[in-house]
Design goal:
heterodimer, A: alpha/beta, Glutaredoxin, five-stranded mixed β-sheet, two-stranded antiparallel sheet, 5 helices, elongated, B: six-stranded antiparallel β-sheet, four-stranded antiparallel β-sheet, 12% strand, globular
Chain lengths: 175, 640
């Protein structure tokens, strides 16, 4: 074997260990940046998800004031966990609308009765069409749409206590 | 009590490994003389480790929920087999299995290796003890499988339902036996390099281990591929997933080593190269284990992810592989090269085999790790998918297969006779198949077309080494080679046929409707709920027919309560010329169900080929282990 090649395998190993050690020491940024931020909200018109409460259409948004949209479902366990935090956001004066994904009116009504109802409007999205148009791939997710109907923020997954200041700040910034 | 006994056994085994290392390093008198003590310690260490593993199996079988690992990964309602398999269906248990196999391999070498000189054997057993010591430390410090949970929960959390399959009971241990079997080749190479004794004796000591490990890796990969094929319900048999690649890389290195070690054993050639491969093969096993266990690469196989554990295994493998490769760099200049050979010779063919396998290994290695490197350099997240691997590795694999038309028929050292007559049968078959596929199936891709031609050509060509031999006196090793090469031909035919001729139908059907796929007409009868031991399912009834007779298929969508998960159970009907593969999807509106159907002609040849390859390897192994050796060939020992 050529003399100069004798240590080549060792060098390959060192490069491998270096790359992997770097990866271990700087944990991957697992956050996926939303592709929807800065875009106008897509057009949709959803029927009411529960009797007695208005449905949600894209025309309701972009009416001069920023609003929050919570994508949820009565069958979604993390949505139960975030319900009290949504109530807190409402208490801070943030108007929240909702999209109920693949749900039944009776189930939504029961969910709201048990977990509280911070929503002004709830649109029913039985086939996930509005959800997909919004660029949401799961429940729950929360969007902030500014007064001009442009998406300013997308929060994926359940809201946790640490997320509240961020959401409030984003809502303030969207004003 | 059993948990504590297991933990104590683990500590004792670690201490024995340390003692074995110290003895091998010469702390118990002169190295050659202390070999008896080293042997005894190695055997004891293997047995004590086995006791620790048996303790863990016992805890799982009796669902002792006061042990954290059992509580997290098992459930009292699980069928017996999955409680048993659950022992290694988790991080700690699988690492304990790993180190148990490592220690047992060391014990077997210590017991049965009688041909190698004592100094080299002592150094090799020292290396094996050092390997074991690191992994004992890893278990005891970072992954204690016997940790108690207080208070004990009423029941456990269950096991991933995808893993509740008879295939799982044997797939990981088979792969692990293969991975870790390569550790012996590694330790022998280290021992040989330390002692400056790199020659045919080392190669002969290594060979059964390489063969056994390779057979098990082949079996493990083949079974894993079939498991993914029927359990994931995606209709594919290989996904170039990082964890699949982690098992493929040691296999590629072991395949190369398997061939080059014969040159060293028979002709004394390729010394440096064979030692390198012996080091690389087990290094790939460790790197594979690391990639799987650290969760550093995103994969469909999800395992416990813990940065501390990742760092620990990384440090171990950097230390072991680094030291071995440094030793190689320092010592290899002192190794004499063996007998020279010409390019057209058995050695030349084996060198070509080794180079191609190494290039394929490099391609898989780079493709698997490229996402990591790209993110380190540019911050981009990307994944390297099948298009890269298929378009780069497959043509090389076909070139390798084409070389198999001639390689096994060449003579050692120098082959002066014309080669063409010997490859003529293969070339004629290849040409005939090429013409036939161009005429009959003009639209298939280039790779499948050549795959069919070369696979078909290899069938007769693999048998040619038997010509001119008395079949009764042909050594088992030759039979093994013929069978394994035939297996390669069969597997290539299956892969090529699958990618050339598969037909797929994705439809939404109502009960009573019919769907045509390939030669089949499939009637969707109904969907009914049924219940299994720890699951409930929606069970679809399909009646498939092609001309005569009706086959009933029942694809299911299974729901497991512990932990809550839904899986798709594909239904597969196997006939001699292919498989009909059905997957039940989601219900859609208006009473329709998504139904996915494939007709896959001759797809089963892929796994049949894999098993033939493994069987060939097993025959060769039997030939090596039980062969009658000439008198005075080795020292006195239990097998004289």
């Amino acid at each position: 074997m050529n003399r100069s090649l004798r240590f080549l395998p060792l060098l390959v190993l060192l490069a491998f260990v270096g790359a992997v050690a770097w990866r271990l020491s700087s944990p991957a940024d697992e956050k996926i940046e939303s592709k929807m931020i800065g875009r106008t909200i897509p057009a949709f018109a959803l029927a009411p998800a529960v009797p007695g409460k208005a449905g949600l259409s894209s025309k309701d948004l972009g009416s001069g004031k920023p609003r929050m949209i919570n994508v949820f479902a009565s069958w979604c366990v993390p949505c139960i966990a975030e319900a009290p935090l949504l109530a807190e956001l409402k208490a801070k004066g943030i108007p929240i609308d909702a999209i109920a994904v693949r749900d039944r009116p009776a189930d939504v009504a029961e969910f709201l009765a048990q977990r509280g109802d911070p929503f002004e409007r709830i649109g029913a999205d039985p086939e996930s069409r509005a959800q997909l148009a919004l660029g949401s791939s799961g429940v729950p997710e929360t969007f902030i749409v500014d007064g001009a109907g442009i998406i300013r923020y997308q929060h994926m997954g359940p809201i946790e206590p640490d997320d509240l200041p961020v959401l409030v700040a984003q809502w303030e910034a969207a004003k | 009590m059993i948990a504590e006994a297991g933990l104590a056994a683990l500590w004792l085994a670690a201490a024995l490994a340390a003692l074995q290392l110290a003895l091998a390093c010469g702390f118990g008198g002169e190295q050659g003389k202390s070999i008896r003590a080293v042997r005894a310690v190695a055997v004891t260490q293997g047995l004590v480790t086995l006791i620790a593993f048996a303790a863990l199996v016992e805890l799982f079988l009796h669902s002792d929920m006061s042990v954290l690992l059992v509580a997290e990964n098992s459930h009292s309602q699980k069928p017996w087999l999955y409680k048993f398999a659950g022992t290694w269906g988790n991080h700690e248990g699988s690492m304990l299995l790993w180190v148990t196999v490592l220690a047992l391999a060391g014990a077997i070498v210590a017991l049965f290796e009688r041909r190698l000189d004592h100094k080299t054997l002592g150094a090799s057993l020292g290396a094996q003890a050092l390997l074991a010591l690191g992994f004992f430390a890893f278990l005891l410090i970072a992954s204690n499988p016997f940790e108690r949970l207080d208070p004990a929960p009423l029941d456990g959390r269950g096991l991933n339902p995808l893993l509740q399959d008879p295939g799982l009971a044997f797939h990981p241990p088979t792969l692990y036996l293969g991975y870790v079997g390569l550790s012996v080749a590694f330790s022998l190479a280290v021992g040989g390099l330390i002692r400056g004794n790199v020659g045919p004796a080392i190669a002969r000591a290594m060979r059964p281990w390489i063969l056994a490990a390779w057979v098990l890796l082949t079996l493990g990969i083949t079974a894993g591929s079939y498991w993914a094929y029927y359990e994931l319900g995606w209709g594919g048999w290989w996904f170039w997933d990082p964890v699949e690649n982690a098992s493929l890389m040691p296999w590629l290195a072991a395949t190369a080593l398997l061939h080059s070690v014969n040159v060293l054993a028979a002709r004394g050639g390729l010394r440096a190269w064979t030692m390198m491969l012996a080091l690389v093969a087990f290094s790939m096993s460790m790197i594979g284990t690391f990639l799987v266990r650290s969760g550093i690469l995103t994969s469909v196989h999800s395992f416990a992810v813990d940065p501390l554990r990742g760092t620990f295994i990384l440090a171990l493998l950097a230390l072991y592989i680094g030291a071995a490769l440094a030793l190689f760099g320092l010592r290899i200049a002192h190794v004499k090269e063996g007998a020279p050979f010409e390019i057209v010779s058995r050695e030349g063919g084996l060198v070509a085999n080794n180079l191609l396998l190494s290039v394929i290994l490099g391609i898989v290695f780079v493709g698997t790790l490229y996402p990591l490197v790209a993110e380190a350099l540019s911050g981009d997240k990307l994944s390297v998918g099948p298009p890269y691997f298929n378009s780069v590795a497959s043509p090389l694999a076909l070139v390798l297969a084409a070389l198999m038309l001639v390689g096994p028929q060449l003579k050692w050292r120098r082959d002066a006779k014309p080669v063409l007559p010997r490859v003529a049968p293969g070339l004629l078959v290849a040409a005939a198949v090429l013409i036939a596929t161009v005429l009959l199936a003009p639209n298939i891709g280039l790779l499948p077309r050549f795959g069919l031609a070369i696979g078909a050509a290899l069938l007769p060509a693999s048998l040619l080494p038997l010509i001119g031999r008395s079949l009764r006196r042909t050594p088992l090793a030759i039979w093994g080679m013929v069978l394994a090469h035939t297996g390669v031909a069969v597997a290539i035919l299956g892969m090529a046929s699958d990618s050339a001729f598969t037909q797929e139908k994705l439809t939404a059907v109502r009960p009573g409707e019919r769907v045509a796929v390939g030669p089949w007409l499939v009637e969707f009868r109904d969907v009914l709920p049924i219940a299994g031991p720890n699951w409930t399912a929606l069970d679809a009834e399909l009646r498939a027919s092609r001309g005569t007779g009706v086959t009933v298929l029942n694809p299911q969508s299974r729901y497991f309560a512990e932990p809550p998960t839904t899986t798709n159970e594909a239904a597969i009907d196997t006939s001699w010329n292919g498989q009909l593969y059905a997957v039940l999807g989601e219900p859609t509106d208006q009473g329709r169900w998504q139904l996915r159907l494939w007709w896959k002609p001759f797809v089963t040849l892929i796994w049949l080929g894999g098993f033939l390859i493994a069987f060939g390897g097993a025959l060769a192994l039997a030939g090596r282990v039980f062969r009658r050796r000439p008198q005075g060939f080795y020292r006195t020992g239990p097998f004289v």
